[in-house]
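Late entry, written up from scratch paper. The run itself happened at the end of the previous shift, but nothing got recorded in the book at the time, so transcribing now.
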Amino acid sequence: MSIPAIALGAGKLIVGAASTYAGVQGAKNQYQRQSEHYEQNKQAAHDAYILDTHLRNKNLMQQRAATSQRKQDNSLKRLQAEGSALAAAAAGGVEGASVSQILDDFRRNEGVIEDRLDQNLEAREDQNDFELLGSQATAQGRANSVQIPSLDGVYSTAVRGAGNLLGEFSDFSDLFDGDFDV
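Output as recorded:
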């Protein structure tokens, strides 16, 4: 066995170790990039869901306020109509049951309008609940669209490199089984 053969064997062993190290580092870097991408995607999906939920709930609050305002406007119109009816009845000398019936009609109409407003708002609230479920499912689907990173690539690269190193070491150790020539 000659010194050049030993140097060549040692060189192959060193190159194999460096190659294995570089491969493991590359696989590790790829895993880290995939992990960052996964986390960014998950965060973006969560942020989009929160924003969508906030906007939908704000819209619903505005609709509730508008419904309340319409009810108040309706009550004001009823009171004005009642006042006008009472003034007209008093000016015409009408009183009793017919005036009461007119006032009852105004109140009944107000109740019907308020019921419709409440039903519309309730339907909008139900629709909002379903839209929020849809937004949640969309966000979950978006978060799931990127595969969870795995360390399998790092492990397989390390195992493959270790196997190659063992083969190189075996070849290198075989150099010492024979005679040593200088």
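The mean pLDDT is 85.
(Scratch paper discarded after transcription.)
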